[in-house]
Amino acid sequence: MIHPALAPYANLAVYTAMGLFTVTLICFALYLAARTRPLGAAIVAEARTPVSVSGSHHLAAADSHVETPEQSPPAAAACDPRDSRHARQIAAVAVNLTYLGAACLLAAVVLRGITVMRPPNGNMYEFTIAASAAAATVYAALARRRHWEWLGAFVTGLILAALMAAVLLFYTGAAQLLPALQSYWLGIHVTIAICAVGFFTIAFPLSLLQLAQRRRQTHPTMAGHRLLAVVPDAETLERAAYGMNIVGFILWTFTLITGAIWAQEAWGAYWQWDPKEVWTFIVWIVFAAHLHGRATAGWQSRRATYIALAGYLAVVANFTLVNLSSTFAGMHNYSGM
């Protein structure tokens, strides 16, 4: 049974989330801009400001102890590792908007589920909305606790891009599923996959930033690294990405297991070499290689990071190319996923 009257409200929640994440992306960008402001001129201006107005000799004394930007050491031209009051205010607004955006996406998922009276993950549109909600919820839970405001622009950018793809490319009206998909395994199997993609999505920009930060640390004289001055060091980024990928890998393992059980129940066999099954296993293999390489002594962390990035790209390919290309036509095609 479908409740079509609720469908517009579910769509409205998605559009509201898109608007909120657009503003959130701008706020996070302004936050990074506020943190990446050079300190050289600010330090001189602050030092030149007299403490009192008792006489001009105070200003002269301050000037005598202040280095000019040309004389100051390189550290003075770097970015302040601490947030200014202005930057903290922008970050607070951005994080609160992230909470609102995540809440709107969760509301969209719930409303869509009530509309179709089933788990709202039966097609590419619903999967994209739910995966975006998972990524937004994971980031919102970590942003203020771990002070990950510096990651916000990258995460919200990915979420906004996914929502635009969902609305413009994958939209499917509220409808019942084919009988083959009307199983409680749909809610279990696909929901676990959605949660896994949420964690992988957070790990992806962390891995990219780690590579950039490691290059910055290796070549400190290279220009164009002002943004990376506000990002944690490469080792911290690598540990954070590794933690996200571990959780995602565990969830993806259960995705494989539950998918095999559902396949046996629906098709009479645990494995059919269906393109969707094969690509899901490829994703599992790639992330397994990443975790193994990261734990193996002698492996360069950069090499393991490249494998993790390849794993996320395999996730994207599994969702887009395998679903949309006739080259990968298989037993999953009727599901739209």
Please give a structural write-up.
- Its main location: membrane.
- It is a single chain.
- This protein has 337 residues and is an all-alpha fold.
- The protein folds into 2 domains: 1-37 and 79-176; 178-337, no CATH class.
- 68% of the residues lie in helices and 0% in strands.
- The chain has helices spanning 7-35, 40-48, 57-64, 85-116, 124-143, 152-168, 184-218, 234-267, 275-295, 301-319, 321-324.
- It is flat and about 60 Å long.
- Mean pLDDT is 82; it is low at 39-82.
In short:
This protein has 337 residues and is mainly α. 68% of the residues lie in helices and 0% in strands.
Largest sheet: none
General form: flat
How many H/I helices? Answer: 11
Our Rg estimate from Cα atoms comes to 24 Å
By secondary-structure content and strand pairing, the structural class works out as mainly alpha
Unreliable sequence segments = 39-82
Percentage beta strand? under 5%
Mean pLDDT over the full residue set: 82
Helix content: 55-70%
Total discrete domains: 2
GO molecular function, one term: heme binding
Subcellular location: Membrane
Protein name: C-type cytochrome biogenesis protein CcsB
Main location: membrane
